[in-house]
Write a sequence for this structure.
């Protein structure tokens, strides 16, 4: 049976503080990368709350699908709005997030913002997400941004050789797609991707989760 092995890195890059957060759970098949909004208060707290609340929400349900994943992100959104109202220094706290649920046959995706999910099959790299942004520095959607929120979801069938990359824009903005594809295929993909991003002079935090196939017999 097809299962999933995960590996991850999160690095502050050239920033004084890391406002990204990553989390994965092999038993749930869950992975998420969040990027706290730079220039907003408590970005590092927003990203951690978003990831932890989303994970906890999925631990509470037996059915795991795009619907339950979307509901988990909405719960995180509401948690951020509630938290932002408790302290002046938390006002307007917000974060991007890209989250996935992987089972033996499909991957379910939910996301808000400009954190991305890539898919590598037969050496062909495809980005499965579209940024919610006017430009590199102007997001149109994020968790914690505004009362109402639209979350984009999708479901794709998995093949045995598929590799997935969830990442913040610190990686996607510093390493070109052809290089991403090359490094994703390596056994030490996360180490190689981080090294490439740092060498490229990434000016933002750099975070990623790589999900590769594993088999249980």
């Amino acid at each position: 049976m097809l299962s999933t092995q995960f590996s991850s890195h999160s690095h502050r890059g050239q920033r004084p503080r890391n406002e990204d957060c990553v989390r994965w759970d092999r038993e749930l098949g869950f992975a998420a990368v969040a990027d706290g909004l730079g220039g907003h208060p408590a970005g590092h707290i927003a990203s951690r709350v978003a990831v932890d609340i989303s994970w906890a929400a999925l631990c509470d349900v037996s059915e795991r699908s795009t619907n339950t994943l979307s509901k988990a992100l909405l719960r995180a959104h509401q948690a951020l709005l509630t938290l932002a109202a408790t302290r002046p220094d938390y006002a307007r706290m917000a974060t991007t997030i890209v989250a996935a649920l992987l089972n033996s046959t499909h991957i379910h995706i939910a996301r808000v913002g400009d954190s991305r999910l890539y898919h590598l099959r037969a050496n062909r790299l495809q980005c499965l997400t579209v940024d919610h942004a006017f430009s590199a520095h102007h997001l149109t959607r994020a968790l914690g941004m505004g009362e109402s929120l639209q979350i984009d979801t999708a479901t794709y069938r998995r093949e045995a050789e598929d590799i997935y990359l969830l990442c913040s824009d610190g990686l996607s903005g510093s390493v070109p797609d052809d290089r991403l594809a090359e490094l994703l295929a390596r056994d030490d993909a996360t180490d190689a991707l981080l090294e490439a991003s740092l060498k490229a002079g990434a000016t933002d935090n750099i975070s990623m989760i790589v999900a590769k196939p594993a088999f249980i017999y």
